[in-house]
Amino acid sequence: MQSTRTGRATPGPHSEERRAGRVDLALLAALTAMLLTLLAAPTAVAHTELPATGHVAPAAAHGVLVAHHAAQTLVCLGIFAAAGLVVFDLLLLAAPPGTAPGSRRRVRALAGLGAAAAVAGAVASVPATAMWQSGAALPALVDPVLWRTAIGSDAAVAAALTVAGTVVAVGALPRAAGDRAAPAGRLALGGVALAVTSLVVVGHSRTVEPSWLVVTADAVHVAAGVVWSGGILGLLAVLGRARDLPLHQATATLVRFSAVAAGSVLALTVAGVVLGWRILGGVEDLVSTRYGWLLLLKVLVVAGVVGVAAWNRYVLLPRMRARSDPAARDDLHSALHTEGALLLFVLVLTGVLTSLSP
Questions:
Q1: Is the pTM of this model over 0.70?
Q2: Which H or E run contains 10?
Q3: I need a labelling partner for 7 at 20 to 30 A (CA). Which of 96, 175, 178, 240 fits?
Q4: What are phi and psi of 83, to 5 degrees?
């Protein structure tokens, strides 16, 4: 707390961060309750369509569905965080290579956590996907036939790409020292491309025609989401308590991200429309299926994220650039907390949607 001349205490930046954190937790709790309600709603679908073959198998046990949802969600959260933060460090952070060590350490620590989540989710997704597709129960984990099927599946290929991509990207990042032109920088960005590819080689886009259009839209959708997610997480890291990034560099980073985020929103919108059109096929499925309702919820939350991002770009960023408002940086950090909380929920929804049949 800070004191004014009148003797009244005014909240300091850390108090504002704690208040923003409580609001974000309440928002996430409300959205999570809505998601759980939709997932628990009864459905008339008694069978699961296998995404790789189009065949129909008996519905998997509840425990398997939960495991599959959890694994896919971990993969999405981990890849978007790890790959996005690598992109932020190398392409968006407006600090010369080797400078702002505190900010870069925070970015790399978060990227490491993301990579760990992605690897854990990828490993768990291989048997979970095999059980989900075959309609097996959790005791099937001890069945050698299940493991032979799982290891030879597309899910195993995707898991290998996820592990290799995230480990390479995050492992090479410290050696790059913020220099994207260095060999380690190029290697890290190559790992990002590999991790993004892992989210495209499996899923609904592989079974919908025309495949070239849907796969391309899926790749654009994932890449734009990675850049946007990494930008928000990175800004939270460098505008937070590290504070070793000078104001002019912090402002330049915000300007870079603002320009890239505008393109990301456009790419996400166009790619999302194409994917929804080809995967669902019509408006009726959008309002009559669980997948459609969750997709609508995702669109609404993304609209909220775009609204907060617009406020940041057109209201808070000009205040920072003018350097006339010392509270602008803290206000922007609080707004980024809200944007990040909403985006986290979007990523959870994305993980759930990838494990549901439309």
A1: yes
A2: strand 9-10
A3: 240
A4: -65, -40
Q: How far is CA 125 from CA 11, 68, 81, 133, 217, in A?
A: 45, 6, 18, 12, 24
How far is Cα 53 from Cα 75, in angstroms, rounded to an integer? Answer: 22
How confident is the prediction along the chain (358 residues), in pLDDT tens digits per residue? Answer: 444 444 444 444 445 455 544 544 554 455 455 444 444 444 433 334 444 444 444 455 677 888 888 898 899 999 999 999 999 999 999 888 877 788 888 999 999 999 999 999 999 999 988 888 887 788 888 888 888 888 988 889 999 999 999 999 999 999 988 888 899 999 999 999 999 999 988 766 667 788 888 888 889 989 999 998 999 999 888 876 556 788 788 888 888 988 888 888 888 888 888 888 888 777 777 778 888 888 888 888 888 888 888 888 888 878 777 765 667 777 777 888 888 888 888 888 887 787 677 7
Cα–Cα distance measured from residue 244 to residue 54, given in angstroms and rounded to the nearest whole number = 53
